[in-house]
Amino acid sequence: MPRRSILSAAERESLLALPDSKDDLIRHYTFNDTDLSIIRQRRGPANRLGFAVQLCYLRFPGVILGVDELPFPPLLKLVADQLKVGVESWNEYGQREQTRREHLSELQTVFGFRPFTMSHYRQAVQMLTELAMQTDKGIVLASALIGHLRRQSVILPALNAVERASAEAITRANRRIYDALAEPLADAHRRRLDDLLKRRDNGKTTWLAWLRQSPAKPNSRHMLEHIERLKAWQALDLPTGIERLVHQNRLLKIAREGGQMTPADLAKFEPQRRYATLVALATEGMATVTDEIIDLHDRILGKLFNAAKNKHQQQFQASGKAINAKVRLYGRIGQALIDAKQSGRDAFAAIEAVMSWDSFAESVTEAQKLAQPDDFDFLHRIGESYATLRRYAPEFLAVLKLRAAPAAKNVLDAIEVLRGMNTDNARKLPADAPTGFIKPRWQKLVMTDAGIDRRYYELCALSELKNSLRSGDIWVQGSRQFKDFEDYLVPPEKFTSLKQSSELPLAVATDCEQYLHERLTLLEAQLATVNRMAAANDLPDAIITESGLKITPLDAAVPDTAQALIDQTAMVLPHVKITELLLEVDEWTGFTRHFTHLKSGDLAKDKNLLLTTILADAINLGLTKMAESCPGTTYAKLAWLQAWHTRDETYSTALAELVNAQFRHPFAGHWGDGTTSSSDGQNFRTASKAKSTGHINPKYGSSPGRTFYTHISDQYAPFHTKVVNVGLRDSTYVLDGLLYHESDLRIEEHYTDTAGFTDHVFALMHLLGFRFAPRIRDLGDTKLYIPKGDAAYDALKPMIGGTLNIKHVRAHWDEILRLATSIKQGTVTASLMLRKLGSYPRQNGLAVALRELGRIERTLFILDWLQSVELRRRVHAGLNKGEARN
User: Fold this and answer.
1) Using CB atoms within 10 A of its CB, is residue 222 exposed (0-12), middle (13-18) or buried (19+)?
2) What is the pTM of this model?
3) Cβ pair 679, 750 in contact under 8 A
4) pLDDT at position 813, please?
5) CA-CA distance, 77 to 89, in Å (whole number)?
6) Per-block mean pLDDT, blocks of 10 residues, the chain (886 long)
7) For residue 337, how many other CB atoms are within 10 A of its CB?
8) Does residue 341 come out as left (phi exceeding 0), alpha (psi in the -120 to 50 range) or beta?
9) C-alpha separations of 603 from 311, 645, 655, 744, 882 in Å
10) Where is the Tn3 transposase DDE domain positioned along the sequence (predicted)?
């Protein structure tokens, strides 16, 4: 059986590729004085040039230039220019084969190059095995080995040897990982894991298949069923910390491989691999179910709050006729009283002239019933849904292992009280039940004249638990999305080391005083400039008056006559079947090579079938309908390809390949240089009902659909797309696309609409090296913040919202840098951190400090906007590109 290849043809080519940019050529192939002294000892221009070229190839890429190989022309010219000889001298080099051999031998002796031996091979396998404990990607291992050999001045062997060493390291690492996960297991653990592959009592599905099911709807029945799943995972009682014995990447990979296999396939594995795979499935499954239970609770509460709000509004609307009648009645009574006072008549007689006293008293009682609370709050109606929450709340609180930061200790104390009451079947709250977590909005419902209302106390505690889980003030053991906030960040000791060695991956000065001095000096200068221009009415196409800011709308940048040319161009373009287009684009770019098999890394054998599967995803047709539409294709074939070859990471790398191909094409330069981009969300309708899933979008309501948040370059390339959570602001996901795309684009400036900005985003954008330029709707309502409260900017007064809290920034400077470093290094995603920061209580130090930093940057941006029509046009044009693509 032939050995499995772990490198694609393109990857093999890239490993030994010569630099093609001028800067890289100079960096790799510039000689120092010692080099030149040794080279000039050769006799004649040809020998000097040949000796020098061989030296270059031995240094990078680290190989011996073959006898029949011609040097890379740019390299040859660079070397010839340094030696002041003509490139044609190469043709005279090595006419005697012995000359080349002698030069090669001398190069090895003088510069210390060594041939690759069996000893090096064994060392390579040992070194790569440690790396393979973290990743089994062949290209990563091969690149690491080649880099190591170059640093050791070892001449690279044939790529087959590199690939063989990498494959052997992966095999060894796999065995070590299987042993690491299986050896801590006792016999009882192994029996329980084997039982997962058996059928449940109903005989329809295996325990493993049942445990991996996701909840269908946010209701108490599905919540209780999912809690039973978590209990079943917990009942495995795996050794504590077993998931930390191997690298997270490998654990997740093993779990994903196991998830694609049938229980029958898993049962055929040799014991160590079977138990290791089941352990990986169990640890990942437990984290997934834990997160889904918390998400279910969040959605159920959201659904109940929306129902209460809607019922409140409906009742008010239903009472509209009666309320109007009462208003008209009391208008007549009021007028009668006014007339009575003016004429000196008796007030009571005036009322009875309109209606009898008994009728008046009865109407007052009716009005009191129609009246809503002073704050017109619907919260009291939540109590009507208490029974829904009560069906699952005891089990929900019992199954989660909660921990809390000091800010949420009162909430956790309340949860502990409720847990105790559930255990004891107690109805009445203890006299010393914690109440510090109760917000003013809940106060009058929970704290009554008769004491603490148990029903509203529990509802309030469950609601505050949801908020604290979102912010990270309460975290859950075993969760992935609701961990301790500290666990998401770079470890403190690593951050301190990076800061002390000036290696923080940030685009700003990391010294707090230097940073603040630079930004505040600039801010004061800009405020003074814009204040002077506003006072003199010199702002371009903008005016600030006591009533606020007014900006003249931009003229159309594209003339109306351009549409005729667009239509003519569209008519010239050929009509091509999308299937033919996919095949043709793949011939240009080879993007399908990225859709590798999850386990083996092999390419799909049937490219047409793979493209059919991709197309089914792209047009949302589904595999069943696609199979029916394509003769000779079956659902089973498409489903197998989808399961093993199409994943988030394969789509990401394939998209990057397409974006890079367009980026490198000369024609794309007519649209832009690839350094600016825009992003926006787009809602697509689907066949399911959001109402039944608890996903309510603030903009689209319960209409069925999904929102895709897409980043588009100035060359119209959609370089990052993400399906986003409903109910969250677009700004949550802006940084994800800029940081985590895999293309060669180097974005410097980014545009969004109003939904894409917050002060937190402004701050992080600047820290991470991006110019942020949102188009802010109602800009006049967006306030400026000044460094000093006593500074006079009279012309800007209508727009000034307050003074910056610089003390807060100083106090939390290291926390800000650590957060930004963690996001930049990929320790945690920007969207997760922004979501948690946005959920923090207002007094949280880090959230407030980051907001103040964002206010500095937002104020600077608005001041630029007021001064520059060109900036307004640039942002407008950038956003139009995204809208045109959509």
Assistant:
1) middle
2) 0.77
3) yes
4) 96
5) 11
6) 64 88 91 95 93 96 90 95 94 83 94 96 96 90 95 95 95 96 96 94 86 89 95 95 90 90 89 96 95 94 89 76 81 87 86 85 80 71 90 96 91 96 93 92 90 94 93 90 88 92 92 96 95 94 89 81 86 89 93 87 90 91 90 90 89 92 93 94 66 53 72 95 79 93 91 93 96 92 87 89 94 95 90 85 80 96 96 93 79
7) 16
8) alpha
9) 56, 8, 17, 23, 33
10) 580-886
3-class SS at 681?
strand
- Cα separation, 363 vs 374, in Å, equals 20
Q: What is the CA radius of gyration of the chain?
A: 35
H or E element: which one contains 685?
strand 676-685
State the DSSP H helix or E strand holding residue 447, giving kind and residue range, or none if neither: strand 447-448
Tokens representing 186?
């006792």
Query: How far is it, in rounded angstroms, from Cα 799 to Cα 217?
Result: 47
In single-letter form, the type of residue at position 12 comes to R
- How far apart CA 863 and CA 783 sit, in angstroms, is 11
> How many Cβ atoms are within 10 Å of 319's Cβ, its own excluded?
15
| Sequence-ordered alpha helix ranges (H) in 152-270 | 159-182, 187-195, 207-211, 220-235, 248-259, 263-267
3-state secondary structure of 724: strand
Pairing state of beta strands 771-774 and 784-786?
Answer: unpaired
**The two three-digit tokens of residue 188, written as one number:** 């009882």
Q: What is the DSSP string of 625-657?
A: HHHHHSTT--HHHHHHHHHHH--HHHHHHHHHH
**Residue found by looking up tokens 């990857």 in the block:** 11
What does the alpha-carbon distance between residue 865 and residue 704 come to, in Å, rounded to a whole number? 38
Q: Which of 664, 680, 772 is nearest to 721 (CA)?
A: 680
Q: What's the CA gap between 232 and 293, in Å, rounded? A: 14
pLDDT value for 690: 47
- Give the number of other Cβ atoms within 10 Å of residue 781's Cβ: 11
Residue bearing tokens 């685009």: 507
pLDDT of residue 513: 96
Give pLDDT, residue 416: 96
Which token pair is 576?
């091509």
Nearest C-alpha neighbor of 107 from the set 150, 68, 50, 149: 50
Query: What is the Cα–Cα distance from 239 to 245, expressed in whole angstroms?
Result: 11
Rounded-to-integer distance, Cα 305 and Cα 667, Å: 53
Identity of the residue numbered 80: A
- The full 3-state SS of 284-299, as one line of letters, equals HHHHHHHHHHHHHHHH
**Six token digits for residue 706:** 């999904």
Strand 749-752 relative to strand 676-685, pairing: parallel
Tell me, what amino acid is at 398? A
Tokens 């895709």 correspond to what residue? Answer: 708
Alpha-carbon separation of residue 29 from 16, 109, 215, 460, 587 (angstroms): 15, 20, 60, 69, 34
Residue type, 499: K
Contact 871, 861 (CB under 8 A): no
SS3 721: strand
Which SS3 state, helix, strand or coil, does residue 707 take? strand
Q: Check if the beta carbon of residue 763 is closer than 8 Å to that of residue 850.
A: yes
Beta strands in 477-563 (DSSP E): 542-545, 548-551
Question: Is residue 720 within 8 Å of residue 740, measured between CB atoms?
Answer: yes
Concatenating the DSSP letter of every residue in 606-619 gives -HHHHHHHHHHHHT
- In this structure, are residues 258 and 278 in contact, taking their beta carbons and an 8 Å threshold? yes
CA distance 766 to 564: 42
Tell me how many degrees the CA angle 565-667-73 measures, rounded to the nearest 5: 160
